[in-house]
# Entry
Amino acid sequence: GENVEQHPSTLSVQEGDSAVIKCTYSDSASNYFPWYKQELGKRPQLIIDIRSNVGEKKDQRIAVTLNKTAKHFSLHITETQPEDSAVYFCAASMDTGGFKTIFGAGTRLFVKA
Amino acid sequence: DVKVTQSSRYLVKRTGEKVFLECVQDMDHENMFWYRQDPGLGLRLIYFSYDVKMKEKGDIPEGYSVSREKKERFSLILESASTNQTSMYLCASSPGTKYEQYFGPGTRLTVT
# Structure
């Protein structure tokens, strides 16, 4: 079945540095790729998403890239700040043969001041 | 603002009890989901529903059932709770297949 692998599981960066989180998916029918941020004790919230007809999307300090051929997508956070510290989840969704969203295992990001 | 609420934040039940977790959304969303969240395993889909009375199994449906009698409400049922069902349970809703999911605050269930 569909699988989403996410790396690294933990990432520690210095404030102001960039952070990159990578995900790969197995089912080429996947066509929607959201990223969620979950702060400690809070619910996951969408921070950015990309659809399969787009290769890159940017929103201020956050960007996502998608390589459909290689079946991988990445989250890039520039100029990290302590409030970026959280767990980040990637996900892959498809709507063929039934709707399904598969989440990666998550990346715990620490931004050191 | 979309609001997804869950009936309890914390719940403690005994092994063998029947447990009901309720989720309500106020945005007329078609799709609703139940996930369990465990450290290192991310969010795993238990069941989802794409319409009233319609449901589909997710990746880990064993030991769970669901009910969606009204569009705004999606219930998760543990028929006979076991200790390995101790977890954080998250409900979510979304307006369509390629759209954001809005999560509830979660229910931390402990089965003793």
Q: What stands out?
A: Chain A touches chain B at residues 1, 6, 9, 31-32, 34, 42-46, 49, 51, 89, 91, 93, 95, 98-106 (CB under 8 Å). The CA atoms of residues 30 and 95 of chain A lie 8 Å apart. Chain A is about 0% helix and 60% strand.
